[in-house]
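User: Please predict the structure of the protein below. I'd like the answer in structure-token form so I can feed it into my own downstream comparison script.

Assistant: Understood. Taking the following sequence of 173 residues as input:
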Amino acid sequence: MVLLCSIVVGCGLLLVAVTLASAQTGITTDPKSEDKQEPLAEEMRIKRLISFAQKEHKENLDRAQQLSRLGAEIDTTFKQKNQLERADFKKLDKLEKLTKSIRGAAGGSDDSCDVEKFPSDLPSVISKMAEMAVALKDEVEKTPRRVVSTVVIDQANVLLELIRRARDLSART
């Protein structure tokens, strides 16, 4: 008799434990509650994706601002000293990295631009590079976040080529 009572009490405790565990983990046997949870989960996932896309777009705008500022700084110091210094080369590296990042965010990947139309002297290259940095920033600001912009990609490729030319020409002088 004692054995039978202890088995019944044990089964009752087991049933209570299973019920509490399923309540804590959200496991239910009611099919209507599952239908309510799926749309909420999907809505939360969509909101996270939208938030992520907005954050990436803002970061891209910040990169474009920084790109424009660096281009102007390099141009200003070159006009003052008529040469590129060590700090300017670091800025060129950062300018190149930002430009590639902006190009990647716009949907581009490879460098391809017409080499014939670039200036051949260092002062003109530096000046054109600063102009292109500002133009690229303006295009990035005008471009909606869900658009693949060929203009941004092309301008980024031109700017990358100008950065390469500036390095090559400054190494020669």
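That's the full token string. The first helix runs from residue 2 to 25.
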